[in-house]
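Re: beginner question about structure tokens

> Can someone show what the tokenized structure looks like for a real chain? I only ever see the sequence side.

Sure, here's an example I had lying around. Input first:
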Amino acid sequence: MRTATKRVYEGMFLVDSALAASDWDGVIGAIERILGRAGAEVLSVRKWDERKLEYEIQRKSRGTYILTYFNASSDKIGGIERDVQLSEQVLRVLILRGDHVTPEVMAQDTPLMLVEKQAAAAAAAAAEPAVETAEPAVEAAAEVDVDAGPVDEAADDVAGQDLDDVEADETDEPK
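And the corresponding structure tokens:
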């Protein structure tokens, strides 16, 4: 008897957004039970995004996508897909071989995570006290006497010369 080797798979599960919002733990539990019945070792389960569906599925117009990575035997994938079809909580599933998937790819931020990070950064920026005015900084800069040294002296020398003298010097000496 030949034993199937376990491979890494990437699964994208689609669930109803209303159900995901009201019973997130129940939805994750259902996905883990489906994978567990197939003898899959779950590596990662994360909410990918919530979007409007292109067409209604079981009279649902919005769906939440859940991205999973798991190890399973190739002969068990058909059973996972059949269990999803029989499930009342999961609308659809797409399972792909994930030979290319590394732990770094599994740890990458999902689109939902990126949006949440941007929102948190914007909220943090809004919470910081605004700078009153730039007047104190301008006054402090005016009080500082900065001497640029040779640059200031060269500028004073040029300013003291007659413009005709400068033009005559330029034409007499080749560069």
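Each token stands for a local structural state, so reading them left to right follows the chain. The domain at 6-112 is CATH 3.30.70.60 (Alpha-Beta Plaits).
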